[in-house]
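Protocol step 4 of 5: obtain the predicted structure for the target chain.
Materials: sequence only (see below). No template structures provided, no constraints applied. The aim of this step is simply to have a reference model before the mutagenesis design in step 5. Sequence pasted as it appears in the construct record:
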Amino acid sequence: MRERSRGPSREDSILRPLANPGTKYYVMVAIAGAVLVWFLLAWAWQLRHGLIVTGLADWGTSGGVPWGIYIGSFIWWVGISHGGILISAGVRLFKLKVFYPVARLAELLTIGALTIAGLFIIIDLGRPDRVVTSVLKSYTLTFQTSPLVWDLTVITLYFVLTATYMLLTLRHDIYALRRRLPSRFAPLYQLLAQGYQPEEDAKVSRMAWWLAFAVIILAPFLLHGGVIPWLFQLIASMPGWFSPIQAPTFLSIALTSAFGSVIIVAYIFRRVYDWEELLPDRVFSRMGSVLALVGLFFLWLQLQAIMTGAFAAPVGLLTATEAKMEDPVYWVAIGLVAAAVLYLGAQTIWHVLFSVKRVVIVAIIPVLATLFEKTLFIVEGLMHPLFNIYRTVPGSYSPTWVELSSIAGAVAMLVLFFAVVSKLIPIIEVEAEHEEKEE
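Step 4 output (structure tokens):
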């Protein structure tokens, strides 16, 4: 029988982030906090002076577009959240053993990204009180006719499903580690594990399986493959948006950005807490291979859209397609995704090319590229409507420092979210029931 090394146990490694933080932790929190404060100051500037401080403008004599990087970021963050929970749900539903170590990280990414996506809606409204006076007040009147209200409804549903799903699996871990968790957070753990009994594990496992099944059905067919793109693809006066191909395109972008984001988050925790055993190389290798596959799917759908819009298309669609093809930002985004797909595909075939660091660096590329593409999708779609009866001057859009600050602030919020959560709960599940067993 092979003798096992006497290194730290699995539980010891999982509990490592919950220990007292060191200097590097406080430095990271301080930097993220400073960026967040900068964003809040920029938002306060916008609240004081109005949306005129952004690059946004209404249709009409002012030209420009009413939506820009705010709504592009909203779609991007929602996509990351949907793809993130699909990873976690797929682990349980299809027994994807290799992805088990990143399942809870993907769930946390979903919760954080969904919250940030909702914030971008509030920022774009101009005044936060409009959430009550314009959205909630008219909810019953607009629910059947407003794609935006559909968006808010399904995002809320998705948030509840994700939080419930994670709580079900978290209760067991809190109970199993109850004597080793920080005593200063005991009230929180008592609340999360309220009424837990070991006998409920089988029932909870079935409930989690059905929740995972619901997520797998809802996400690709109703949420990022349905309701979210309906907000755009049902508007016939916008030729650049009006197309049934938007649903699979949105889904491909969601999966591409989500797998890239999970790779980045997983590597950060692996590097900071020496989790080479909990997050082994094969996790990054397989995630890189899947990222190459979904990235290739994204490129194929972009090719379909370009061919449809550029070959003997109606005038409105042809104009919108030509404008997109003439924009260097679009080709930068496509080129970045293509480069990532080529490398990740090559390292899947020739494993000698594999390196965890290289996979992480390459994973950053499509995450940024999908943000560029979604913002350009919004801007170009609005700048080339079918009827220009209200425009007397050419429109244009360039994000200002206020809008760019929102991107930095959103990333800072996600960093702070993981920094806080990792000190409160185990971010890797205790039981490795889905992992491959050592012989």
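Step 4 remarks: The radius of gyration is 23 Å. The chain is about 70% helix and 0% strand.
Proceed to step 5.
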